[in-house]
């Protein structure tokens, strides 16, 4: 019994004839998703690619198209144009942007965990944070933690937000998040 790859259709001799209709459709849908992703990226990032003039025109038209059906046709149009582009460079750019987004999200979540720990645990967490970031203004950190604890009990968001901003400034560029 032969096991065949789902991406190819086979003739009666068992020889592959090329991609199946299903595989072609999956590839087109992936290109449409890539087109949507690219349209949401800043132009300054996309300019690193050597895109054709027609692709640039299509990408520039995207914000004007409001109707959902027209937008779907637009993604198909961009996907057709992308088939003619250097896809290795496009994929590298989009993958790099997604990786930066994941890193930024992880950084944000780590800051939120620190803020929650500082509010919940108090001095123990403050001491640990100072060990991770020794250049931090200890007095200001303690004052912000106390204010955030008070405001959290009262249901006010102001001091916890200030604490978050302070933590972000203290740890920006630092790999000491845990």
From TrEMBL:
Q: What is its main location?
A: cytoplasm
**Is Cytoplasm among the key words of this record?**
yes
GO CC, one annotated term: cytosol
Checking InterPro entries in the record gives: DarP (IPR006839), DarP_sf (IPR023153)
Q: Phosphoprotein as a keyword? A: no
Where can this protein be found? Cytoplasm
**Annotated segments matching region Disordered:** 1-25
What keywords are annotated for this sequence in UniProt? Cytoplasm, Ribosome biogenesis, RNA-binding, rRNA-binding
Q: Which CDD domains match?
A: YjgA-like (cd16331)
Q: Which biological processes are named by the entry's GO terms?
A: assembly of large subunit precursor of preribosome
Q: Tell me the SUPFAM superfamilies matching this sequence.
A: PSPTO4464-like
Extract the Pfam families matched here: DarP
Q: Which GO terms describe its molecular function?
A: ribosome binding; rRNA binding
Q: Which family does it belong to?
A: Belongs to the DarP family.
Q: Spell out the HAMAP family in the cross-references.
A: DarP
Q: Which PANTHER family match?
A: UPF0307 PROTEIN YJGA
Q: What does this protein do?
A: Member of a network of 50S ribosomal subunit biogenesis factors which assembles along the 30S-50S interface, preventing incorrect 23S rRNA structures from forming. Promotes peptidyl transferase center (PTC) maturation.
NCBIfam families in the record: PRK05255.1-1
Please report the name of this protein according to its UniProt entry.
Answer: Dual-action ribosomal maturation protein DarP
Its source organism is Allochromatium palmeri
Lineage of the species this protein comes from: Bacteria, Pseudomonadati, Pseudomonadota, Gammaproteobacteria, Chromatiales
| Gene name linked to the record | darP
């Amino acid at each position: 019994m032969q096991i065949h790859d789902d991406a190819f259709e086979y003739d009666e001799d068992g020889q592959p004839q090329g991609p199946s209709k299903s595989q072609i459709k999956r590839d087109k849908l992936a290109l449409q998703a890539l087109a949507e992703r690219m349209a949401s990226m800043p132009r300054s990032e996309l300019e690193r690619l050597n895109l054709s003039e027609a692709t640039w025109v299509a990408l520039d038209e995207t914000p004007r198209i409001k109707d959902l059906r027209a937008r779907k046709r637009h993604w198909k149009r961009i996907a057709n144009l992308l088939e003619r582009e250097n896809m290795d460079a496009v994929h590298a750019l989009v993958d790099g942007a997604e990786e930066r987004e994941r890193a930024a999200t992880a950084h944000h979540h780590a800051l939120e965990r620190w803020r929650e720990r500082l509010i919940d645990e108090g001095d123990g967490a403050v001491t640990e944070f100072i060990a991770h970031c020794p250049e931090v203004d200890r007095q200001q950190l303690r004052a912000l933690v106390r204010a955030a604890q008070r405001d959290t009990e009262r249901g006010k968001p102001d001091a916890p937000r200030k604490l978050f901003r302070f933590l972000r400034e203290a740890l920006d560029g630092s790999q000491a998040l845990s």
